[in-house]
Amino acid sequence: MRRPTVIGNWKMNASFAQTADLLAGLSEGWTGVHQAEVAVCPPYPYLAKAAELLEQSNIAFGAQDLSQHASGAYTGQVSADMLLDLGCKYVLVGHSERREYQGETDTLIAEKFEAAAKKGLVPVLCVGETLEEREAEKTFDVVGRQLRAVIERVGLEGVAKGVVAYEPVWAIGTGRSATPEMAQEVHAYIREVLGPEGEHTAVLYGGSVKPESAAALFAQQDIDGALVGGASLKAEDFLAICRAAE
Ligand code: 13P
């Protein structure tokens, strides 16, 4: 059995005051025992606030990125140990915005995945094709390549300890989600690549997930939850998506 999982990626959004409001709203709305695993990934400066305000809830938290290095002269970077010190459980690795704007390569992403997993963080490996790649019928090639880069570094057992998020680039922040059938097709492929080792690994869908579209996505056999951007910035919307995953 795979645990339904919903993770919010706040990206570079919210102020300190908004963070406190949002976290308080989530904490109040998600007490008690739940079937679904829920986590949020606020910007680095707000992680300590997340540790404080989520303490009484069943909501975990994580970071949006980490350094591949353990420590040293890497100005501006944040290590796995630092994230663990703050109480992070998760860390996103290879988000398409980092691949695109920070030029992160498959190799670097594999190094980051390894650095996170080695220390006991749960890396959330993001994969997904651009519109151009989909139109050229290269979706499986691209997603397969992105997965294999990490598998080559940490093995199938290593990847199985993380979470995989399929986020088609054309669906991110566009309001144009993949249909449940389109997403399911790629999720089934990801599951095939992960093999029996990945039987318990959650594979999440990300890209314009909204309260209205979540249930139909989660009804698909190989969609175990969601990585949510925009809709994770409103407590009500995010909690509705979390409830749909149960
Ligand atoms: P949106 O939900 O805003 O499309 O963002 C998805 C995403 O990139 C989550 O990591």
Quick take:
The protein is 44% helix and 15% strand. The protein has ten helices and eight strands.
Describe the structure.
The chain has helices spanning 16-29, 47-53, 80-86, 96-101, 106-119, 131-135, 139-160, 180-194, 211-218, 235-244; strands at residues 5-9, 37-41, 59-63, 90-93, 122-127, 163-166, 203-206, 225-228. It has 246 residues and is α/β, with parallel strands linked by helices. The chain has a single domain, classed as Alpha-Beta Barrel (TIM Barrel). It has an 8-stranded parallel beta barrel with strand order 1-2-3-4-5-6-7-8, surrounded by 6 helices. It is globular, with a radius of gyration of 17 Å.
What are the key terms here?
10 helices, 246 residues, alpha/beta, binds 1,3-dihydroxyacetonephosphate, TIM Barrel
Q: Looking at the structure, what is the overall shape?
A: globular
| Beta-strand segment tally | 8
Question: In percent, how much strand structure appears in the residues?
Answer: 15-25%
- State the helicity in percent bands: 40-55%
Give the helices and strands as they follow along the chain.
EHEHEHEHHEHHEHEHEH
Question: Quaternary status of these chains?
Answer: single chain
**Mean pLDDT metric:** 97
Q: What is the strand arrangement across the widest sheet? A: 1-2-3-4-5-6-7-8
CATH fold name, please?
Answer: TIM Barrel
How many domains make up the 3D coordinates? 1
What small molecules are bound in this structure? 1,3-dihydroxyacetonephosphate
Corresponding CATH architecture: Alpha-Beta Barrel
CATH class: Alpha Beta
How much is the radius of gyration in Å?
A: 17 Å
How many helices does DSSP assign?
A: 10
Major pleated sheet: 8 strands, parallel, barrel
How far the N terminus sits from the C terminus, by CA atoms, comes to: 13 Å
In the CATH hierarchy, what is the superfamily? Aldolase class I
**Low-confidence spans: pLDDT under 50, at least 5 residues?**
none
